[in-house]
Amino acid sequence: MMLTRLTAVEAKLFLRDPGAPITVIGVPVALLLVFGLMPDNGRPSDDFGGQAPLPGFIAPLAVAILIAMLALTLFPAAMASHREKGVLRRLAASPVPPSRLLAAQLLVNLGAALVVVLLIVVGGRLALGLALPANPGGFLLTLVLGTLALFSVGLLVAALASTGRAASGIGTAVFFPMLALGGVWVPKEQLPGVLRGLADVLPLGATFNALRSSWTGTFPAPLQLITLAVFALVCGVVAARVFRWE
Questions:
Q1: For residue 56, what are the contacts with CB-CB under 8 A and spacing of at least 6?
Q2: Which tens digits make up the pLDDT trace of 73-132?
């Protein structure tokens, strides 16, 4: 019951800030629509490993960026802000453990991610003729592991940052290099050899490239899935040990 109330409060705070919902919904959907409406996006292209750009790059890009924005910027900033304002300290002195607030924050962010992923998949299908993920098992497994890995990194950022502004800055500093090195700005097939391998061992790049594979019908590479599991475990354990409620 208390977790339900906390989740409802955190959801209201999330929706009350116009920047958060606009960013979470607007950026991925805009990426899908703007690039998806370009001509020939449904035809195979050598630039995208012989796959059509829409299912082979654009749609997975929208999903991966959505999860990364929530996990690396919004979630850690919210948790660090609660610590900065003394909310976690007050909860620690009450019958409600601060971990309930952490769980509520995770539920709100995961709920937002689920809604927008469905919007991308279903809306893309209806508006753009986007093919559904051809390997649904690999797609769901990637979503789960990618979400765990990226939110574990975000939890570590929240654990180390002293203020909400610091958490947002650190998360952004982590987010953009992952975009550059993960095959997101430039398709992995067009990266030099060393960077091509690096794209599969960064959590955002591994998530994105595994989504690309599963959306076009192949199972994600073992290296990508192992990378996500390792990041989820290591960052989650470290964050749990160093996280400060005050």
A1: 48, 49, 212, 215, 216
A2: 999 998 888 888 887 777 766 766 767 778 888 899 999 999 999 999 998 888 888 889
Q: Name the burial class of residue 244, with classes exposed (0-12), middle (13-18) and buried (19+) by CB atoms within 10 angstroms of its CB.
A: exposed
What is the per-residue pLDDT across 186-212, written as a single tens digit (0 to 9) for each?
A: 777 777 777 788 888 999 999 999 999
Task: Estimate the crossing angle of helix 222-242 against helix 136-160, to 10 degrees.
Answer: 30
Residue 234 pairs in a beta bridge with none
Token pair belonging to 106:
């995770």
Contact (CB, 8 A) for 152 and 174: no
pTM: 0.91
- Each domain of the chain, given as residue ranges in start order, spans 2-242
Check: CB of residue 156 under 8 Å from CB of residue 79: no
Spatial contact of 28 and 62, defined as CB atoms under 8 Å apart: yes
At CB < 8 A and 24+ separation, what contacts does 171-176 make?
A: 171/72, 171/73, 171/76, 171/77, 172/72, 172/73, 174/72, 175/68, 175/69, 175/72, 175/73, 175/204
Output the six-digit token pair for 126: 């209806």
What is the pLDDT of the chain when averaged over all its residues? 86
The whole-angstrom separation of Cα 86 and Cα 31 is 37
Q: What pairs with residue 45 in β-bridges?
A: 51
- For 89, the token pair is 């300290």
146: pLDDT strictly greater than 90: yes
How is residue 90 annotated by DSSP? H
